[in-house]
Each structure stands twice: as structure tokens, then as C-alpha cells.
Amino acid sequence: MSLPNTRTARLASWSSTLRYTDLPDAAVQRTKDLFLDWLGCTIAGRHHPAVRAIVNFAKTMGPTTGKSELVDGDLAPFSRTSPAFAALVNGAASHVVEQDDLHNRSITHPATVIFPAALAVAQDVGADGQEFITACVVGYEVGCRVGAYLGKSHYENFHSTATAGILGVAAAAAHLLKLDPAQTLSAIGTAGTQAAGLWQFLLDAAHSKQVHTGKACFDGIFAAYSARDGLLGTKDVIEGPRGMGNGLVPGKTMPEAIDADLGKDYEVLHSSFKWHASCRHTHPSVDALLALMSKKGVRFEDIDSILVPTYQAALNVLGMSGDCETVHQSKFSMGFVLAIAAKKGQAMITDFTEADLKDESIREFQRRVAMVFDREIDDAFPERWTGRVVVTTKDGREIEERTGFAKGDPEFTLTRAELETKARSLAKYGGITDGNKVEALIQRAWNLENETDLHGFVF
Amino acid sequence: MSLPNTRTARLASWSSTLRYTDLPDAAVQRTKDLFLDWLGCTIAGRHHPAVRAIVNFAKTMGPTTGKSELVDGDLAPFSRTSPAFAALVNGAASHVVEQDDLHNRSITHPATVIFPAALAVAQDVGADGQEFITACVVGYEVGCRVGAYLGKSHYENFHSTATAGILGVAAAAAHLLKLDPAQTLSAIGTAGTQAAGLWQFLLDAAHSKQVHTGKACFDGIFAAYSARDGLLGTKDVIEGPRGMGNGLVPGKTMPEAIDADLGKDYEVLHSSFKWHASCRHTHPSVDALLALMSKKGVRFEDIDSILVPTYQAALNVLGMSGDCETVHQSKFSMGFVLAIAAKKGQAMITDFTEADLKDESIREFQRRVAMVFDREIDDAFPERWTGRVVVTTKDGREIEERTGFAKGDPEFTLTRAELETKARSLAKYGGITDGNKVEALIQRAWNLENETDLHGFVF
């Protein structure tokens, strides 16, 4: 079957034919970094009630044997199932603790959908480490490019991690299933017509965030396996007149993002690691505030108020966190997060607790933080996530600080030592006490391209 | 937990508390009519390649034992599975042959999502006929009201049967699981944030139509079971500022449709049966043409050309059928469908064949049919599906005919004898040769409220 002359077909064709030997070493190494980071996030999020409910669904509706594994070893004897359900559970768990990676241009968290799906399918088909890495690179490429295409106006209503990510999942799974370009295009089409995930849940602290990522994995795997078995997906689901662009994007799309410079650059190299444990939209401001406090010797108790000029998407997402009744909501409040950072000198996963929600000094600080729209910062977003804070001290000084990128951004990525530290802390937060197990998994991640069997990434 | 004072919460509360004894007999009887009609559609669609691929997915990813049954008995030994997968397969199969019911105001086909999901869950929980009927009434009510809320502008891009239907599925499943109003609201929230299904597939005859209905079943069941197990759905997914209305509706919504007159009228009474086997948007015109030909003694070979003034949604959907390379596409071409009806005197399921695609007299007739936008008809749509044809005969006469509703509409519904005839023909089309089996299932459908076990609706 000949492919149509469209951007989406070119993307599908490239995805299908990419080989491990095509990849520059930097892309391989970064994929391993992202994989370890994802693994830590997955075990850290396993106890969330949404994950528990989804595990129950998987047990009730899916098979309780299979080739694909749940990262949470404590779920045994329910330790293996079919790839769709393993990815559903692992994908839900990895998007709980707000520590997963963030791809700036697409405003998506690719790891939380690409790795659970690719790992589950790789285990199902018996892929080796090199095939797995290649499929993950494909998944990142497709998901991030589609997210960039959908853009900022889409992100106002939709959780792009799911709506764009599902196409990345489909492409990664299709690659592992060795689908040809036409079948891969079908898989992408069937994925795109299932794209869903609204931000409404942020307004009442509902559990949809985990639903969105888990289901993007499940549904993208459905798209790929059914394409293998003859189900035809529509060929131009992204740009077609009744496709995603027309149906899901009220504003401007970025068509060239779909296929420009395929294979010349790699999206895995442009994803940022989270260092702070809060919503990524707070990170630039946290970095700016911590830099300011360090440079100028300003302490928590010296600060009277903070003005945070920022971009519209931050105002939209962070403006929905309400009164922060839960720890999860508190990570979406600019005021609360800056208060934690200012008081504790950091905002790591262990720094957000129930006790902090009741700490009046934090609550009072939170109320003295205001966000305001900044045209220049908004124009640069999402290519650039600028941080800017204007601090007024109790003794009447006004001090400003600005950061051009955040710790963990591609320009300032985490070192392997930092990634290991973060993985250990995530495992600890997830209740893993066997340090040897954690170290062994870290070493396997660094050796991923030489692994011949991808089973056993289980805590 | 107290419910918020919103339309969606009132709908959830009503759904949760409706009892069989609340139902007027007309609603019970019509639900049985709709159920039999759905059963026939399901067996008729079982051989479609999309259904085959979805059956493979269910076998690969789901359990091969369970309490819920596949309507297609030839799939044995894969005859039972979990409710999510049984509904996925049956939901896909029932939306193949373009013979399923159509609810005018919501522009949805409710049966193809509500019955497969409710039957699978009823079998899982051991519900009886009365509980099943009540849950189906709930499913229709929620799905159709949400579809009416989303309206015409949503329908331009989205397959509302899936995007609205998934909420109906969740409500029906929640009712069978005996969820309380707050849990039911959670189920509706989790359903709404998964709502998906784009029309793009119509442009290249892809298989997404079956994906949309099957997945609406699966995903709505996910929403209900996970709500039972503690997964919180967002409380205002329909009308909230980042909900369906804002994200999925470019034009006007109809908020009052969500909760006006709950329990005073029933949406099952407002769904239309399809008599012709083509896209429902062609039916009013087929009726008008057949009436004209009968009244005026006009024959196929007398007709020079036909002008069809119609509403915008018909122009949008039927305008995408292209050259009608497949039998399925041919049912979406106004010209082709009118040619079949004019030549054969009817447009039943056996009247659309591969041979007709190659019949030059039909193709030539098809090219002489033109649609044109009609303001008055469009204003009345979708409450009223008006048919109008202006026929120019070869001897130079111009004759016009107009119908106010189509055969099978609530105002002109099918008799039980007609429903039985249609079910028999659908079963025959699906390759069922055992007439006794068909008659037995017909009798069970008419006796549904007295059934104590809903297993065995298998051809």
C-alpha cells in the first residue's frame, strides 16, 4: 500500500523504519536517563487511590497471567498480565508524584505514557534493550511532535500528555510489533481518534490525571495491536478536516512540528527532568526564588510578598488549584510551592506533607504570592520556560530575579549521580526498603542497550 | 458525601435512584423493542474486519473466561470474557450495518453503546431483566441528554454516539453496580474525561466507527467499576470551565437538556428505528422519494435528476463519502442511496451489494443527485428530520415531495411484527441459519422483564 503524501504519513514511515544503529549515542544515553527516572516515579506513585482502583480494574477485567509485568512487586500474586493492562497500571502510577519528565515545546510528560507502554509490549514480544530503546525514541518523537502541533490553545482544555501521548504510544508499540509504515499509520490514526483528557479534574482534585496516562497507554496499545490485525485507522488523523487539529485545537496549530527535520534531532534530548516535586509550571519561579534568596541572603521570614510574572498556561493550570485541600493540589499552587521552597530551601518529594497543609506560616506566605501575566515570557513559551520573581522584603526592598531555564532542563540536565539520588528518594517514598534491589535496577538501566530480556524491572 | 448543586449532579442522582417500578409501561416495552433491534444489528455486523481485529485484541489482552458473553456464538471457545471486553466486541459489532437506532435530538445511536455495556455488566453482576431494563433506560437518558447538550456544532467534528454515549454507558453500569449518587457522579466524570471519537475516518473508509462504539463501552465500564473502587471522577465534567462543553463544543450547548423534566419523559421513547440500511441522514429523503414515486407513478428510468434540499449536518457527513469505493461508503452517499431506493423500491440491508457498486445505471443516477442547504429544514434539525426531494423527470416535469418524519421515527414507529422481520433479516445477513434459535431469542426479548438470568443472548 502506498502512503499518502502527508506529514503524518512521513512521520509514520520514519517511525516504522528507524533502527537502533541510526541513533546517536546521546539519544541512547538520554533515553536510559529518562527510563530510570520513569521507573522511580512509577514505584513512588503506587499507593495512590487512583492506582489502587485501576489495579482492581485490571484484576477484574484483565488476565491475571501474561508476559508483561507490574512494576509494583507487592501486587503479587497479580504480578503479570497482558501488555495493555500492565501499561495501564504502570502508566497510572508513574504520573502521581509530579516528578516525571516534561518536554517543553509540546507541554507533555512523555515518559509516563511512552515507557510503560513500550516496556509492556517489549516484554510481550520478547524485545531486547536496543529494540526497546529504539521504540522509546520513536514514541517520544511522535508524541512530542504531535503535542507541539496541538500547541498552547489545545493545552488550555486538554491534558496533552494523554492526547498527544497516545499517538506516541501507538508508534512505539507499532515499532516493537514490527508493523510496516502503512500499518503504523493505521495505528496512529486509531490512536488519534481516541485522544481524550480534560483539565476539569484539577478543579476538584479528582483522580483523572492517572486515568489519562494509564488509558493513553492502554488505548495506544489497542491501536497498534488492532492495526497489526487488520483494523484500518484513518490516514490523516492529525491534520485532516475532521481530525485532531480541527476538533481539538481552538487556536493555532504548528504543522511543521509533525515532520520537520526527522532524524536530524531527537525529542528525547529536549525533555526536562523535574528536580522539584511540584507542578512543572512552578519550577522556573522556584529556581528564580531560590537563586534570589541565595544570592541576596534573603530568608523565609524576611519576605513580605512575591509577584510572579508568568505565561498564560501557568495562570490557567495553577489558577485551578483552589484552596489546596490536598497535598496533590498544594503542588499546583504557586503560593504554596514558593512558600515550601522558601521555608525548606528545596521542594523535593518529601517536602510536601499533610503537616505543611496545616502550617499557618506557610499558608500565610502562600496568600502573599500573586501571579501576573507577562507578555514577553508568554511569547517565549513553551519553547522557553522563563522564571521571574519580584520579592518585596519586610524592610521595604524590592528585589528581582530571572532564570532562563530550570534545573533539569536540557540546557542544565541532571547528572547521572543526581538521577540516581532522585531514583533512590523516589523508591524510598514508594516504601521500598531493599536498597540492593534499587541499586541493581539502577545498574540495569545504565546497561539497558545490552539487556537481552526486559523482564524484572520490578521493585 | 453531599452532591453539588449542578445539573450533572442532579442527573447522576436521578440515575442512581431510578427504580423499575418508576417506569411507565411504554418505556419498558420500547426498551425491549430497542434491545431486540440491537441484538439483530450485533449479529449482522460480526464479520466486519474491524470486529475481527477487535475480537483478536480481546483474546490477546483480556481473559478468555468470565461471566459476560459474546453475542457471536461462532467465536467459541472464546465465548465468555470479562464485561469490559464482551462489551467492547459486542459494541463494535452492533455499529457495522447502519441499522441501529437513532435518537434525533442528540444525533446519537444509543443502542450500540448502551445495550452491549449493560448486558455485559448485568451478566457479570447477575442482574435480572427488570434491573437490566432500568439500567438501559438510565443509559439512554444520560447518553441522549448529554448528546443534546453537546449539540450540532459538536457533531460536526465528533461521533456523538461515542462522546455522549460513554456517559450513558457509565451511568447504566453504575446503576447495575448499585453505586450511590456520589459514586455515579464520579463514574460520569471519569467517562466524560475519556470522551473521544472524530469523524475523520469517514474520509478514507477507515474502521474507527466500530472503535468508537466498542471503546465507549469499554471505557464507560472502566469509569463505573473504578468509581466503585474509589477512583474519584471530576464532578462537573459536562458544564465545568475545563469540561466537555468548553473543550469539545465550538458552538452552542443546550444546558437545560441535562436535567429538565427528569423522570417525566423518557429518551427511550424518542429513539427512532432504522428501516432503510443506509446512513440515517439519507432516510428522510429516501422516504420522500419513495412516496413521490408511488404517488405519481414515477419509475427509476423516468428520473432525470434530483435536488435534495437538506440540513447542514447531512451535507457534512454525506459530503465525506467520496467516490463510494466500498459498500459501507455507498450507504453514506445521498446519490447512491436514492439510486438504490429508486431502482429496487427499498433500501434494505440486502439491497447494497458489491454488484451495485459496479452497476452503471446506479452510478449514472448517483451523479444526477445534488444536495443543497435548506435554511428552514436546518432550523428544525435535529428535533425534526425533514425529507424533501425535487425530482425532474426526463419528460421535463418538476415534482416535489416532503416528509415530516421518517418510517421508524417515534411518531411512526415500527410494529413488533416489523421489528421481528427486521431481526430475522439481520440474523440472516449475519449468516445465522438456525431459525429456531432466532425465534427463541425474539421471544426472550419480548419477555425480558420476567427473565431472571440474562445469559444466553447468543446466536
TrEMBL record, chains A, B:
Location of the MmgE/PrpD N-terminal domain = 10-254
Taxonomically, the superkingdom here is Eukaryota
**MmgE/PrpD C-terminal domain ranges (all copies):** 276-447
- State the SUPFAM superfamilies in the record: 2-methylcitrate dehydratase PrpD
Entry's Pfam families? MmgE_PrpD_C (PF19305), MmgE_PrpD_N (PF03972)
The residues the entry assigns to the signal sequence are: none
The entry assigns this protein to a family as follows: Belongs to the PrpD family.
Q: What is this protein called?
A: 2-methylcitrate dehydratase PrpD
**In which organism is this protein found?**
Aspergillus pseudoustus
